[in-house]
Amino acid sequence: MSLIDLLCSYRTLRDRVISQESSVIKDIMSNEPSRNLIFPCDIIDLRKIFGSQLVTGKFPILLFSLRFAQKYLKDYSVFLTIDSEKILDNKKKNGSILVIDTDTINIQNIISRIIINNTSNPLYFEQVRKLVKEYKIGAECLISNTVPGVESQSLILSHNKKKIIKTSQKTPQIILNNDEKQIFDLIIQAKKYSGLPIKLLCAGGWVRDHLLGLPSDDIDIAVNAPGYSVALAIKEYGDKYHIQTISNPHRVSLEKTNDPIKKEEQSDKLMVGGIDIMGKKIEFVPMRTESYPDPNSRTPVITNTNDPREDSKRRDLSINAIYYNIETQQVEDYVGGIKDLGLNNTPMLLRTPDDPVKTFTEDPLRVLRTLRFHSRYPKSIISPDVIEAMRNPLIHQAYKNKVSSERAGKEIMKMVTSEDPVSALKLLFDTDMYKAVFNVSSMEDIVPEGIKMDQQTPHHDKNLLDHTLAVVSNLNTIMKQNNESDYMRGLLNFAALFHDFGKMKKDIPTPHPKNPNQMQYLEHEDASTSMADDILKSIGIGKDDRDIVSQIIKYHMKPHNADEWSNKAKGRFLRDTKLPGKEEEHKDLWKYIMYHVQADQMAGKPGKHDPEKFKQVFDSLQSFVQSPAGSSPKPIIDGNEIMKLFPQLKPATGYIKEIQQKIIEMQDSGEINMNYINMPEGPERKNLEQVAKNQALEAIKLMGPQIIEKYKETPKMSKNWFKSVVGQSIPIGLSPGQKDPEIIKGPKIQPSSYEVGMIVRDRRKGIANPQKHGKIVSIKGNAITIEWEPKNSKEKKIKQVLDLVEDTHLLSLIVAEV
């Protein structure tokens, strides 16, 4: 068996040999073995060795120099110092290592001393001393000053022991449930079995929630050792005693980075060890200090520590820096976190363990975490110095430089799904921190007052900020009252948050033409939709969720006059608001838009919202949704059937869409009876379905001549063919010469395939050449406005207004991609 294989049989050497083989071999070969060599073991092994008077193993036994043991074997709790001169046979030198070519050594009279590695538990020394006395081993016991870890301070024989924190009688106690008792007992037994000289301190949310009397499954245990090594030791203990409730351990990176290479390079010394015990996720987190030499990165330089005081200072809030020692069953508090919890009928205080400017500059994401906890605990108070730090422009810039969108999105989503998101959002805006958090290009061109602008409109008596927060508050309550999921509540709170952001755009507020002292905000919902999508995308919110938010914002103004809607208008609203391809998945989107309308009205001037009237409108719309007409969002006659009825017409002309639009409006109004929709399968349903189809076919037959006349091909197309067709066409359902009361003189535009929000491209240069891409931002009458993307980031977006009648040739070269 090779020396490398033998080295790998020692648990703490395997990874080092694999990753740093040349360095390990160099250390071995740089010295000759001394007379007194080291055999590493754990306390539980020590009893077996003393009882049998034998050192045994599966392979040839290695004896190491003390220098090598101090560097590579410090995770073992006991070093037996063996006089190698008294081992007479079967030994071979290999650098500073002695290979005993047998799997057994008789220890009688060859142990010169026993070195106990440093441990947070001084009882280890006493345990070894008792074993030595019990088995009458003639060797002195020493406590190592350096072996356990390079950074550690250790116990010494003069009894200058490291001070152990004693909990005051007033310190609250944590009551464990049965699962927690079993898990902690198992971890303690595994520690004893392996001889790991470590502290085991539960930290963070688990301690906080238990002290508040709240359940918590998120168990993080701070240890003064590599976390992965602790997880491995627990797995070894479980395998030894055939404990089936322990999973395989895994590594969890401490790096605050999304760079997989950096995570891969992180050493086990800094690695969190994860393992499941009895179905619960446990993570062993090395106690550490953090420094941030790179001003543009929140990825720290990490140094291990054995002192929980140092570990507590790098945490975000004092309430998250309390520890629970699972061995002593005592709470340990070094930063006053227990007092800040407000357990004695006082408000919870949110403050940082260290200077808040330093804390937030190093990791600005802690600003969002502070606000998130404020929203989670509505009666909490944020320390004034923390709020002042949030106002600091240096913190705003540090946030822009350091925080990734993925991490920000998770914190903000937790904030808007918390118990009370309003107070946290208010601070986000009051401190101007929102400009750093919502740092997108569309936010650069806003009015100087930003969200604190006066709306100057008779519809609102609040500025934009107060109105926005009122809508969020109202909608948050409405969603709870209707037992909606927290996730959907969060999405609607996003919609409420951004629904009027477009009003801040410099080109949106315009003086009212009849009342110059008032402002109007035409198309602000379109601008708000675009800004919301940009912001949510920047903080890592997925497209499906953004689409829901965008649809609510886009249509939030439509139902304000819904009390006047006919069934046709209701059907049109339902179809317009559905997400293409997700009609069934998000069939209740209309309801969420109505919830938003209710919250928006409630946040307007007093008297603007009439609860009884709104309920009537909502119930009426819900009745329509549940009716046969509302349950049939598609025309009963499909496109293929229509094509067969008009073989002389080309589908590209658009006649199919016009016919289907007319048919579905007849379904909405009841002119086509759709009662079969909600009937069970059977002959009666089939008969009624055929009756409905016959009604639709009869309607198509009546409109047939007008359709053919309108969409037939002409032998020769003049320059003004489009005007000619749309201007002279006879409206469907009218005879020649009959006047349409809704007709507007002059050319009518043909039904357009363009929609607001659609992405288009300009291919006038040819497909092989670079093509412009833009977005349709508005369609008003004949005017379609396209905002073209610039060639580079330095240029501004260019808006182009085209006429659907006059610019048909140009529009034919602008192709919709989506």
What does this entry look like structurally?
The chain has 818 residues and is α+β, with helices and mostly antiparallel strands. The chain folds into five domains: 3-143, ADP-ribosylation fold (Alpha-Beta Barrel); 178-346, Beta Polymerase, domain 2 (2-Layer Sandwich), CATH 3.30.460.10; 450-613, Orthogonal Bundle (Hypothetical protein af1432), CATH 1.10.3210; 639-728, no CATH class; 759-816. The protein is 40% helix and 14% strand. It contains 30 helices and 27 strands. A seven-stranded mixed β-sheet has the order 12-13-14-11-10-17-18. Strands 26-25-24-23-27 form a five-stranded antiparallel β-sheet. Strand 21 and strand 22 form a beta hairpin. Helix 12 (356-362) runs parallel beside helix 15 (393-402) and helix 19 packs antiparallel against helix 20. The relative contact order is 0.04. Mean pLDDT is 83; it is low at 145-169, 256-266, 724-736, 740-749 and 765-769.
Please, what is the oligomeric state? single chain
> What is the radius of gyration computed over CA atoms, rounded to a whole number of angstroms?
37 Å
CATH fold annotation of the largest domain: Beta Polymerase, domain 2
- The rounded distance between the terminal residues' Cα atoms is 66 Å
The parts where pLDDT drops under 50 for at least 5 residues are: 145-169, 256-266, 724-736, 740-749, 765-769
Total domain units: 5
For the report, how would you describe the main beta sheet? Answer: 7 strands, mixed
Inertia-based shape: elongated
CATH superfamily of the largest domain: Beta Polymerase, domain 2
What is the typical, i.e. mean, pLDDT?
A: 83
Structural class: alpha+beta
- Determine and state the CATH class of the largest domain: Alpha Beta
Fraction of helical residues: 40-55%
Strand content: 5-15%
Instruction: Please provide the count of β strands.
Output: 27
- Record the strand order, biggest sheet: 12-13-14-11-10-17-18
Q: How many H/I helical runs?
A: 30
> What CATH architecture of the largest domain do you see?
2-Layer Sandwich
